[in-house]
Task: structure prediction
Amino acid sequence: MYRAPRGTTDILPDEQVYWSFIRQKAYEISVLYGYRRVDTPAFEDAGLFVRSIGEDTDIVEKETYTFDDRSGDKLTLRPEGTASICRAYIEHGMHTLPQPVRLYYDAAIFRYERPQAGRYRQHHQYGVEALGEGDPALDAEVIDMAWQFYANLGLKGLSPILNSIGCSVCRPTYLNSLMEYYTKHRNAVCSDCRRRLERNPLRLLDCKKPSCVPLTEQAPRSTDHLCPDCSDHFSRLSSYLRLLNLPFVTNHRLVRGLDYYTKTVFEIAPEREESAQATVGAGGRYDDLIEQLGGRPTPGIGFATGIERLILNMKKQKIIVPQSAEPFVFVAHISQQAKDEAMKLASLLRRSGISVIPSLGDRSLKAQLKQANSMGANKAVIIGEDEAKSGTVVLRDMAKGEQNIVPRDVVVETLRKTYHRFVLVENRITCAIMKVG
Result:
């Protein structure tokens, strides 16, 4: 029997209420902060991610799905969202637009990782990128946006965690200090950290293995080695966050797992959890990335959050997600002639904006109404031979069990009045989408 590939999961209808809720909140917060949607391909030239993420990162070395297509081109399934957005920014000349260009996405992400709670080999991210501005006020805005997004989902007890990892001017000095420290303790670290010491020393601070954590606590701090520009940027960012009343903490161990980050890096995680899977969202500044990809020097900052991990945290906190408010009508029939009329009525109701599920097959009326009840229908329209001949229907309130006979030519208007509030809400949502689009 075939099963979903390891590290993937089916999102079944009963789970979709979480996804719809999160995506609606993501759309609302994006519009609120002036971000516009962008969608990029699920796969890119493999070199894009090697150049942006870093050849010596765990993602490129161990986790990417890279393959040769039939033309011999080497492609990689998207392992993160930022590089693709930056590629699109360069390719489509977005530097000519008013800066910063604010973009958001909701995309599938692919990484070959050990599957565990909240981490899948195919997962989904909501993310934002703001390109073309280096002001630390923009960093504060992005962190505030992430914080507000999680608050809108109902998540509590989260803490923004902040650090600055410097830039190309001051980071070399810091890396030398870090390597000197870890060289003295080479025999005490794990095998992965011994490899990182030679190839990617900044990632030493990101190790979560119990044998390495005590060493990271005593390691040199990046904030003690910042150049004047980076130090000023971090100081101003901290001031802006206090101005916005965001209860952030600093953590010198926070470096993130991608090579393109400069200056600001941040995570948002539950205050009382230390596991690697506790983080609900993370991001940072990447002022050199677009230039590395062939564009003109362009600062940028963003954050991303895994939707599956959000749902996991929402369930942990027992957050009640509003169920779909969509009412629908079940159309039942008693004979073949009545079935023909039922099909025509179902089509008329749908064209009038009313959700309909018609009965299929030739089951008894009792069985049809039992099905309508189990599916959660609000109303049932019943057409028998007498109704088919007289041009009427039986309109049944499924909750109350009450029913009455209604002329077929007024049933649409009768149901419209019943669902007046629903139709108004749907129209508002449609209008909002049209305005933004």
Notes: The radius of gyration is 28 Å. DSSP finds 16 helices and 16 strands in the chain. The chain has two domains: 13-170+226-316, 329-433.
